[in-house]
Amino acid sequence: STVALTLAVPAGATGIGDEGCTPGYWKNHTDSWIEDASGLPSYFPTEEFGNVFSVSYGDVTLLEALQGGGGPGISGAKQILARAAVAALLNAAHDELSYPLRRYQDTPSGPAIIPAVQDVWDSGDRAAILELATFFDGLNNLGCPLN
Asked: What is the C-alpha separation between 90 and 22, in angstroms, rounded?
């Protein structure tokens, strides 16, 4: 018989459920960017999106990504995905939220957030980028119990 090994990612949020806060919530409540009882933020508004997600996106910060809109072409699709992905990341990192996705590991609800973004980011496939953004957006609108 085979034994499956799972590497535990240290950190916080473990509840898998049906809560999610919108990009607008996270944009307007940077004080909620905490992970655990230590009260320390998992991520800072000034951190660069590209560094957190390990993709190339200039010097756009996490907060700027949340403020982004969208537009035509691949760059517009990336703005839309960046906005939804940052909200998904913050939802998954927050200990008081029961978000259906995790940052680094797949769940029954869907793929791990960071690898999923990496998979489509440089694909040049606007439809695939928008499909992932739409998926995240649906989960980010499940309902926010914070504040």
From this structure: 10
